[in-house]
Amino acid sequence: MISLNWVKDYVDIASEDLNELAVKITKAGVNVEKVFTNRIENLVIGEVEECTDHPNSDHLHVCRVNIGDTTTQIVCGAKNVRKGIKVIVALPGCILPGNFEIKSGVIRGEESNGMICALFELGLEEKNEETYAKGIAEIDTDLTPGTDANIYLGTDDTIYELDVHKHRNNDCYYHIGFAYEIASILSKKVTLPEITHKEIKENVSDHLILKVETESCPYYLAKMVKNVEIKESPEFIKKRLISAGMRPINNVVDISNYVMLEYGQPLHFFDKDKLGDTILVRNAKENEEIITLDKQTRILTNKDIVITDGVKPVCIAGVMGGENTDVDETTKNILIESAIFDSIGIRYTASRLNLRSEASIRYGKGLNYEYTSSAIERACHLLEKYANATILSGTKVHDNIDKTKKVTKFKTSEVNTLLGITLTDKDVETELERLMFDYTKEDDTFVVNIPNRRLDIDPNVNDIAEEIGRLYGYHNLTSTLPSVPTRRGKYVGDVKIRKEISKRLRTLGINETKTYTLTSMDMAKTFKYDNLEQINLPNPMSQDKSVIRTSLLPSLINTYEYNKARNIKDILLYEIAKTYDINYHEESKVAILIKGNYLINDWQHTSTVCDFYTLKGIVENLLDYLGFKNRYTFEAATLPEMHPGMSAKIILDREVIGVIGRVHPSYKKDEIYLAELSVTKLYNKQIKPIKFKESSKYPEIIKDVAFVIPNEIECDIIKNQIKKSGGRLLDNIEVFDLYNNIEDGKKSIAYKLTFKDPTRTLTDEEVMEVFNKIINEVTTKCNVKLRDN
Amino acid sequence: MNKETILKLKEEISKIFENNIDIKKLNDLKVEYLGKSGKITELSKSMKDVPNEEKKEFGMLLNELRVEFTNKFDEYKEKLETEELNKKLASEKIDVTLPSTKIPVGAPNILEHIIEEIEEVFMSMGYDVVDGPEIEEDKYNFELLNIPKGHPARDAQDTFYIEDERILLRSQTSPVQVRTMLSTGGKEPVRMICPGKTYRRDADDATHSHQFMQIEGLLVDKNISLSDLKGTFDVIAKRLFGENCVTRFRPSYYQFTEPSVETDISCFVCKGKGCSLCKNTGWITVSGAGMVHPNVLRNCGYDPKEWTGFAFGFGAERLAMLKYGINDIRTFYQTDLRESVHFDRKDVE
C-alpha cells in the first residue's frame, strides 16, 4: 500500500491525475492493482449548538448540530457530547466502515438525522474499551461547520495497492523507492526527507559494546537516544500509517514503522535499560529459547540469527523482538538497531517459525545499505522532533558489507538489438537521466553506475535495456517476426511416435485421458507386471500422491471408475505418459482400457461387446499401423491383477513390449480389459519402408480343414505347423470356426487355407498334394486328429 | 392356310395381351404360340403348303405376326417384372430415422487438443517440438536458469524433491530449453517448443493443481529482439483467440529472461470494455516471456555478445480454461467422457 499524500513529500505530483498516473506506472512495470481512497462521503464537521437529555432515555442526548448550511437534530449516546464542541458528523447516505449506512430515523420518539462519530467508528482507531470510553471525537480545528471532515482526518488520501514482482519488491515496497519510480516515469527529481538532528557529547560507545559473530549479519548500526517521551504520534504520522495499512500505537513505535515505510529499512528499538550494555549478534544455539513480543516461546536452531545481550537472546534478528527488551510506556532510553541480515536466512527462519512480519518480509527481499544508515539518522530526527529524545553522538558499526559498485558498459546498438528499436545516443542519455542513473561516456560506450537502491539490476546490458525499454514503453514496440530461415519444425525423439499412437487410438474410437504421475502406495502396488521398484517421494504432500508410478493401469482404472459412477456404460480409454523406476529410468507407456460395447446398436442387437479379442484387435491394429506387421505374438502369461486364463505378454522381435488381459475378477468385478505397451521400446525398434506389393493375376484355390485339438494346445501352434508344411504356395491362413468341447477336453478349430502362385495358375493336383502334406504333418507332429465331418 | 388365319391370329394376340396376365399365364402363352407345336410355329410349318406366288406375302405376314407377339410378350414381361421389383422395394422400405450403429468416438484430452493446435502453429514457423525428462536435476531445473540455491524464485515454485536437493520433479519445462541449448554446444541456432508436464507442491482445488502442463518455447539466433517476440506472440494469440485479438506487453520479471514481459490479450468476452473474466481491465494475461538472460545463454554455452534469443511460456490449463470457459482445473485430469466427447472434432480455423 502506497499513500500518494506521502509520496508527495518526495516528488512533485500535485498536478497529476492519480488514476492516469496509476496506468502509466503499470505500463512501466509495477502493477497498480487498485487505486482507492480512504475517503468517507457525507462526512462533515459539525458544531453542537444545543444538547439536551433525551426525554425517553437515561443516557441519550438530543442535539442541534450546525452542519454549515443548516442545523439538524441528531440523537447521540456518547457521554462527552455537549454544547459548543466541534464534532464529526456522518450525514444520511454516509457509509461507515463495515458497510454501515447512516439513515434518517426516529430514536425513541426523537428524530435523528445522522450520527456524531467516534474515531473507531470511522475505522481510524481500534475498537476497544479504551477508545470506547473516549466517546465521540472532539476536534480542535478552525475548519467551519459543514466542511468536509476528510480534510481534517487526512482520509482524503489516494492509495495504490501494488502487485509488485519479486525483483522490484525491495525498491517499490517503500515510499522513497516508489517516489523514484514515479519520478523516472514523469521525468522529475526526488527530494529526500530531512535527517538532521542535534547530538549531545555523550557517545553511544560509553554505553554499548557491539560484537558480531556471524557472517549472516554483514552490516549492523546502532545509535542511542535518551529520555524519550512516549505519547500519541502527531496526526500526519498516524494518518500515513493508517493509509499504509498499519495501526498507530505510540510515537516511538510509530516512528520505527514510519521510517521503515519511508526507506524500506526495518528498525528495531530496544529498551536500553532492559538490554544492558552489550549487543552480540550470533547464530542461535540448537534449542535455544526466546519469548517473543507476542509472548510465545520460540525454540531456535543454529540456522537462526539472534541478537543477544551477550548471554541470552533479546531478539530473533529480522523477524521479531524479544519480550525482555520490549519498548513500553515506561521506556526512557532506546537503542536503535538498523542492520542487514542474510536474506535467505531470514526467509528460512520466518517461514520455519511461521512469523512473517513486516520486517521479516523486507529483510527477506534484501536491503540497500545506504538506506540502512539514512534510516537510523531519520529515526533520530523524528524521535528528537516528536518524542523529545536526546540523541547521543556516534554510531556503533559493524561493517562487512560488499560495497562494490555495479557498473555496466554498453553501446546504444546493443540496446537497440535487444529491443528491436532505433534509439540514438541522445535518447539513451535522456532515459538514463530519467532513471537517475549516473553515467559517463567513453566514445560511443556508456558507462553506467547502477544506484544501490536498485538491487534488482545486474550489471549487464539486458538489465539496462529493460529499464530503457519499460520507460520507452513496450506498447510502442512494433511487431516483427524473427528473420530466420524458413523451414518446418519437426517432432524430436519419441514425440512423433507418441503422437502417432495417439492419432491411431483416437481413430479407433478410444478416448484420451490424462491422469496424475503421483499415485498412492495402494495404487502403485498393483499391476507390477514388470517388477520395477518405484520411487517414493521423501516428503509427499499427501498419501494419495506419494509415489511416482511405474504403470499407468491403476490410474486408468480410476478414470474408469469415475466415469462408471457417472452412469457411462461403454468406456474406452487410453493414456500415454512417462513412468520412472527407482533408478530414474524413464519409460513412456501407452495404456488402453476397454469395457462395454465397442460398436453399439442395441435395437438391432448387433453391438460388439468388448472382450479380449477386441482389445487384441486394437493392439494389433496399432502395431500394424506403426509398421510392425507380422513381428509380434501374444503369449499366455500369469500377470498380477489380471485374470490368469485371459492374459498375455505381447512379444515383438522376441522382446516383451507389453501386456494384455482381463482384470482379475477378484480385483474388479467388472469385465474390464487392459493393455499396456512400452512406447520407448517401440520407438527403439527399426521399421522397414512401405513397399508396393502387386496382387496376383492368377486365380487362388481355397481349401478348408478342421482339426480336433486338445484344449491345452493353442491355435497358433497348429497355425504355425500349417504354415511350415504349406510352404511357398500357401498364401494365407484364417481361422473361421471354433467348436469347444467337440469331445471331452478337446476343441475343433477350422482353418481356411488360400493357395496362390503369383506367376501362374495352379492345378488342383499340385494343391491337393500340398494340402495332404499339411494334414499329414499337422496330425502327426502336433498329435491332433483331422475332423472328419 | 391363308392370310385370314394369320390376321385372325393377330387379332387374337392383341386381345389376349389386353387382359391381366400373371407370369405363369404369360409363360404358358409363349408355349401356346411359339412352343414346339404353338400356333405360330404350326403356321410356319404350313409354309410349305402355300402356293409359290403367295409364299412371299405369307412369309411377310407371318413374320409380322411373330414380331408382334414377341414385342407384346417382352413388353408385358417387363411390366410384370417392374411391378414385382417395385413390390419388393416397397416391402424393403426402412425407417431412416432409426438410430445408427454407433462408431466409437475417440476424443483427445482437452490439454492435448490445445497443445496440438499450438504445436501446429509453431511447427509451421520452424519450431521443433522437443521433450525432456520429468525427473530432473536441480542444475537444469534451476541453477543453469540463473536461479541459484536460496533464491526467492524457488519459494514460488515449491518443488517436489526426490533425492536431497539434487533430483526433483521438474517445476517448469525450462530445463528442456537448457538441455537443447547445451546439446548444440552453443554453435547452432535454436527454435523449439517443449510442451510437457510440470509439478509443484500445490494442494489441488478448482484453480490449483500439483501437476500441470506448460508450453514453453525458445528461439536463439543472431539479432533476435523483443519486437520479434511481440510479432511471434501476435501470431499465436490470433490463432488461438481470433484475428481480432489485440496483444499487449507489460514489463515483468523472471529470473531467466531480461527484459521480461507479461503478455496480455484483449479480453475476447467483452472486447476490451471490461467484464468479470478480465476483472474489468479489458486484458487477460496469458503468458510470461522475455529475452533470454545473458547468464542463461552463457551457462548454456552461447556468447551473449553474439547470440540473443527470446523465451516464452504458456500454461496449457490456463489457455484451455480461457478458450473453452472451463472453471475447474481438475476437469483436465478427470476425463469425464460426457465432457471430452465434444473435443472429438475439428475446430474453427
Topology:
The complex is a heterodimer of chains A (about 800) and B (about 350).
Chain A: E1 2-3, H1 4-7, H2 18-27, E2 31-37, E3 43-53, E4 61-66, E5 71-76, E6 86-90, E7 95-96, E8 100-101, E9 105-107, E10 110-112, E11 115-116, H3 129-134, H4 149-153, E12 158-163, H5 175-186, E13 200-203, E14 209-212, E15 219-226, H6 235-243, H7 251-263, E16 267-271, H8 272-275, E17 278-283, E18 289-291, E19 297-299, E20 305-308, E21 313-316, E22 320-321, E23 334-340, H9 343-352, H10 358-365, H11 369-386, E24 390-393, E25 396-399, E26 406-411, H12 412-419, H13 425-435, E27 438-442, E28 445-450, H14 461-472, H15 495-507, E29 511-512, E30 518-519, H16 521-524, E31 535-536, E32 547-548, H17 553-564, E33 571-580, E34 586-595, H18 612-625, E35 632-636, E36 642-652, E37 655-663, E38 673-678, H19 679-683, E39 701-710, H20 715-726, E40 730-743, E41 746-755, H21 764-781, E42 785-786
Helix pairs in contact in A: 5-13, 6-7, 7-11, 9-10, 12-14, 13-14, 20-21
Chain B: H1 3-16, H2 23-34, H3 39-45, H4 52-91, H5 110-124, E1 128-129, E2 135-137, H6 138-141, H7 152-156, E3 161-163, E4 167-169, H8 174-183, E5 190-199, E6 211-221, H9 226-241, E7 247-254, E8 257-266, E9 283-292, H10 294-299, E10 308-315, H11 316-324, H12 331-334, H13 337-340
Helix pairs in contact in B: 1-4, 2-4, 5-9, 5-11
